[in-house]
């Protein structure tokens, strides 16, 4: 199962509205277990992992064990559900990590298997699998994406300097790790203030992973993003969404649309975009994970609305000084309700990860 969970990560962030799931078909050969079929949800979401693994295993699947990271689907479309494909292939046993919370599946996939006489073992390494499937599970159970708030804080507790644009807080190794996080996210989100101050690209620029850049989302209530910005100028090559309350006939809207930007109509509350409703709209578009990189104001708003599921805090060795912008949180003053998950050292920089207590 651990191997299946690792395999599922290959297409994380690239399977559309479907989760990235893996299946391994295993049988005893010469007295030992051998993987004879592998499958991971295809880019775009189809075909599913089970059908790919069964096709690779062929007749060898009969009497074998299938390891699946998520309960096999049970609903009919143009193709039969994966649970029935496993029955038809003649597998003897299915070992599963997570139960699918989708009402069309939850428990029904297992029921199809058991009705056919297949042994089912549920919940194997469920917590580890659920961590990677957090986006899909959040979208199904909370009607919103899984939100990861990433922040880099200097040694003196700052996230930047006033009027200085982007201020390097971490070294190259840590910045590469951030690009790795982007590569497995559906959406990366910042506020318009960060977009104006930093003029970022928000793409994944690791060699070989450039094509895995997430959708860039800017919360831009009045459409302040300049058409000359890096985000706007690259909108045709990497998707750009603008959450705004600007009217349809706003000239800025037409100018940005001509460059390829798309718009999410957003409601306002107390002069700011309504974040819970916006998260629902993001989920409705099939996005399951949102990586937030932008600004103290947006970070604080998301935390106040209880919309953050995971915190990733990079603490750099540099000192910003007296013109610094205070970070909304740091290791010494974390938001309530988060528990530590892991700590890593990337050269001179430290990364701490926290999850909201369930």
Describe this structure in words.
The protein is of the alpha/beta class and 358 residues long. The chain folds into two domains: 2-132, Cytidine Deaminase, domain 2, CATH 3.40.140; 136-356, Dihydrofolate Reductase, subunit A (3-Layer(aba) Sandwich), CATH 3.40.430. Helices cover 27% and strands 27% of the residues. It is built from twelve helices and 18 strands. The protein has a nine-stranded mixed beta sheet with strand order 11-10-9-8-14-6-15-18-17. It has a five-stranded mixed beta sheet with strand order 2-1-3-4-5, with helices on both faces. A two-stranded antiparallel sheet has the order 7-16.
Please supply descriptive tags for the structure shown above.
358 residues, Cytidine Deaminase, domain 2, Dihydrofolate Reductase, subunit A, 2 domains, 27% helix
Q: Any idea of the CATH class of the largest domain?
A: Alpha Beta
The helix-and-strand class reads alpha/beta
The CATH homologous superfamily of the largest domain is termed Dihydrofolate Reductase, subunit A
What portion of residues is helical?
25-40%
> Poorly predicted ranges (pLDDT <50, ≥5 residues)?
none
The helix tally amounts to 12
Beta-strand content bin: 25-35%
| Shape annotation | globular
Mind telling me the C-alpha Rg? 22 Å
- Major beta-sheet overview: 9 strands, mixed
The assigned CATH architecture of the largest domain is 3-Layer(aba) Sandwich
Whole-number mean pLDDT? 94
How far apart lie the N and C ends? 24 Å
Q: What is the number of beta strands?
A: 18
* CATH level 3 topology of the largest domain: Dihydrofolate Reductase, subunit A
User: How many distinct folded domains?
Assistant: 2
Question: What are the secondary-structure elements, in order, as H or E?
Answer: HEEHEHEHEHHEEHEHEHEHEEEHEHEEEE
- Order of strands in the sheet with most strands: 11-10-9-8-14-6-15-18-17
EC number: 3.5.4.26, 1.1.1.193
Binding site for NADP(+): 152, 194, 198, 295-301
Domain CMP/dCMP-type deaminase: 1-120
Cofactor: Zn(2+)
């Amino acid at each position: 199962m651990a191997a299946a969970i690792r395999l599922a990560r290959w297409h994380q962030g690239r399977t559309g509205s479907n989760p990235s799931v893996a299946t391994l078909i295993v049988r005893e050969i010469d007295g030992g277990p051998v993987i004879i079929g592998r499958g991971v949800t295809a880019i775009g979401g189809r075909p599913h992992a089970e059908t790919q693994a069964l096709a690779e295993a062929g007749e060898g699947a009969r009497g074998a064990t299938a390891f699946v990271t998520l309960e096999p689907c049970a609903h009919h479309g143009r193709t039969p559900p994966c649970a029935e494909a496993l029955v038809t292939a003649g597998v003897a046993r299915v070992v599963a990590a997570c139960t699918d919370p989708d009402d069309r599946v939850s428990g029904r996939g297992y029921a199809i298997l058991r009705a056919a006489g297949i042994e089912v073992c549920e919940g194997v390494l469920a917590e580890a699998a659920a961590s990677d499937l957090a986006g899909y599970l959040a979208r199904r159970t909370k009607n919103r994406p899984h939100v990861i708030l990433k922040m880099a804080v200097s040694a003196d507790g700052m996230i930047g300097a006033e009027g200085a644009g982007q201020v390097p807080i971490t070294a190259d190794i840590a910045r590469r790790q951030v690009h790795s996080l982007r590569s497995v996210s559906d959406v990366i989100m910042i506020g318009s203030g960060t977009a104006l101050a930093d003029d970022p690209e928000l793409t994944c620029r690791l060699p070989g992973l450039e094509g895995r850049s997430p959708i860039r989302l800017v919360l831009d209530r009045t459409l302040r993003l300049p058409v000359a910005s890096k985000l706007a100028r690259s909108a045709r090559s990497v998707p750009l969404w603008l959450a705004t309350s600007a009217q349809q006939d706003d000239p800025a809207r037409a100018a940005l649309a001509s460059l390829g930007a798309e718009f999410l109509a957003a409601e306002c509350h107390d002069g700011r975009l309504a974040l819970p409703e916006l998260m629902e709209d993001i989920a409705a578009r099939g996005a399951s994970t949102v990586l937030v990189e932008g600004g103290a104001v947006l970070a604080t708003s998301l935390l106040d609305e209880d919309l953050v599921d995971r915190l990733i805090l990079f603490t750099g060795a540099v000192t910003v000084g007296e013109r610094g912008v205070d970070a909304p949180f740091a290791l010494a003053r974390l938001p309530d309700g988060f528990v530590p998950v892991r700590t890593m050292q990337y050269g001179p920089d430290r990364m701490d990860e926290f999850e909201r207590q369930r």
